[in-house]
Inverse folding.
């Protein structure tokens, strides 16, 4: 990869890390503010804190990727696919600067993930879906309301 291109990505990653410090301060402020007011205000405050926590977690995950990319620039391995050791195209890196796989390896990885049975959980509705076999779908309903009690789970299986 050309030195000018590497320098571009190094500046990009450095600016992302510097900008994240300012964003981190605003997220910390949202996390430390205590909800006051009536029940609706408190519920909105709780929701805002939950959202701020989720954003902080995602930001931390992304910043780890940025730090790893900077380390790869320093050791000369930035732009090389971790799977096949081929070059990752500049177009792909411009679109997704923290990419670690070339497009061929990424497509192969995603194709392989389609065939893996998994359990999906809706975090907004407390509803879990899992497939136990080809013809049975299991639904898990979680009720998290109450006086600091653990959520109650009800399970129902449907034959299709």
């Amino acid at each position: 990869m050309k030195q000018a291109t590497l320098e571009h990505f190094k500046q990009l990653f450095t600016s992302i890390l510097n900008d994240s410090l300012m964003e981190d301060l605003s997220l910390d402020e949202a996390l430390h503010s205590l909800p006051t007011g009536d029940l609706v205000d408190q519920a909105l405050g709780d929701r805002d804190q939950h959202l701020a926590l989720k954003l902080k977690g995602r930001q931390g995950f992304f910043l780890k990727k940025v730090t790893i990319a900077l380390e790869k620039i320093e050791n000369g391995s930035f732009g090389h696919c971790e799977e096949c050791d081929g070059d990752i195209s500049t177009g792909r890196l411009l679109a997704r600067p923290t990419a670690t796989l070339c497009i061929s390896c990424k497509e192969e990885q995603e194709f392989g993930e389609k065939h893996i049975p998994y359990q999906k959980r809706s975090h907004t509705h407390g509803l879990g879906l899992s497939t136990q076999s080809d013809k049975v779908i299991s639904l898990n309903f979680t009720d998290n309301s109450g006086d600091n009690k653990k959520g109650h789970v009800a399970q129902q299986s449907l034959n299709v």
Remarks:
- Residues 44 and 66 are 32 Å apart (CA to CA).
